[in-house]
């Protein structure tokens, strides 16, 4: 019943094509010989085709940073799951706090994205997390429960590997302020118990919950040692080949 750790790199709106090619090449090299963990990278949409060529035949999985729920149609600015599949994407980040806060995506929309991804065979990484004001107001667990329940509303999970969650406290993203291992584990354990109440136990126990928010080469080991932290969603430190390599090689 071991959950296979997943190290995921979110490149956000960074990298030229040349930079993307070089970084993806470094990630492929860093993963050689690793069989006890999974590694995924999410370049910007414009670099997906380029990175797909680099990771082809390697164990590095390709992801998109968002995904629409419709097969095709008049959805200006959106990308359909089938289009992503065609490029070799098998995962998509959904509900990232930057989508929620800057672009106004709400729980209902995010739920549609989760459903759409699953319908087309793409594994969603559903992100959720509290703001600093919510933490300081003692609302952390209520916010996590609301976001997870709403994001997964009506979603049945047949195969635990087909659904990934990511706890990303908003105050820890891009700030250099990581949640302590204890804070992160407390949130992950809470979400694990929530999943156990929503899904069959064997499935809920197997679903991976990643931690994200200023993960770096210095804190990754301690975070991933926590019993309910099953991987990391890494922003800034995934853009530097040497730091992401060290994160990929985390030691539990
Ligand atoms: P960060 O970003 O590692 O730069 O904090 C994490 C994320 O936004 O997924």
Please give a handful of descriptors for the protein shown.
single chain; 252 residues; alpha/beta; TIM Barrel; eight-stranded parallel β-barrel; binds 2-phosphoglycolic acid
Query: Number of helix segments?
Result: 11
Instruction: Specify the structural class.
Output: alpha/beta
Instruction: Give the strand line-up of the largest sheet.
Output: 1-2-3-4-5-6-7-8
Average pLDDT for all residues: 97
Superfamily (CATH H level) name: Aldolase class I
Could you say which overall geometry the principal axes of the C-alpha atoms support?
globular
Order of helices and strands: EHEHEHEHHEHHEHHEHEH
Share of helix among residues?
40-55%
CATH topology label: TIM Barrel
Residue stretches low in confidence (pLDDT < 50, at least 5 long) are: none
Number of domains: 1
> What bound compounds does this protein have?
2-phosphoglycolic acid
CATH top level?
Alpha Beta
Task: Report strand %.
Answer: 15-25%
Main pleated-sheet profile: 8 strands, parallel, barrel
Question: End-to-end span in angstroms?
Answer: 17 Å
How is this structure best described in words?
This protein has 252 residues and is of the alpha/beta class. The chain has a single domain, classed as TIM Barrel. It is built from eleven helices and eight strands. It has helices spanning 17-31, 48-55, 81-86, 97-103, 107-119, 132-136, 140-151, 181-198, 201-206, 220-224, 241-248, and strands at residues 6-10, 38-42, 60-64, 89-94, 123-128, 164-167, 208-212, 231-234. Strands 1-2-3-4-5-6-7-8 form an eight-stranded parallel barrel, surrounded by six helices. Helix 1 runs parallel beside helix 11. The model has no long low-confidence stretch (mean pLDDT 97). 2-phosphoglycolic acid binds at residues 10, 168, 173-174, 212-215, 233-237.
């Amino acid at each position: 019943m071991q959950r296979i750790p997943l190290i995921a790199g979110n490149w956000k709106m960074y990298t030229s094509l040349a930079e993307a090619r070089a970084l993806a090449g470094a990630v492929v090299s860093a993963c050689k010989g690793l069989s006890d963990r999974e590694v995924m990278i999410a370049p910007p949409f414009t670099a997906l085709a380029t990175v797909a060529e680099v990771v082809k035949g390697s164990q590095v999985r390709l992801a998109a940073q968002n995904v629409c729920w419709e097969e095709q149609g008049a959805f200006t600015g959106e990308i359909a799951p089938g289009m992503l599949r065609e490029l070799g994407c098998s995962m998509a980040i959904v509900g990232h706090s930057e989508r929620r806060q800057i672009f106004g995506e709400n729980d209902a929309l995010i739920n549609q994205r989760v459903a759409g991804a699953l319908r087309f065979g793409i594994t969603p990484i559903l992100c959720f997390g509290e703001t600093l004001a919510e933490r300081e107001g003692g609302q952390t667990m209520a916010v996590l429960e609301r976001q997870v329940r709403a994001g997964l509303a009506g979603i049945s999970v047949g195969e635990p590997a087909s659904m990934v969650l990511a706890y990303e406290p908003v105050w820890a993203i891009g700030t250099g302020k990581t949640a302590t291992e204890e804070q992160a584990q407390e949130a992950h354990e809470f979400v694990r118990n929530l999943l156990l109440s929503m899904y069959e136990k064997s499935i809920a126990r197997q679903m991976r919950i990643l931690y994200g928010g200023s993960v770096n080469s210095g804190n990754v080991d301690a975070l991933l040692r926590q019993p309910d932290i099953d991987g990391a969603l890494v922003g800034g430190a995934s853009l530097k080949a040497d730091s992401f390599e060290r994160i990929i090689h985390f030691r539990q």
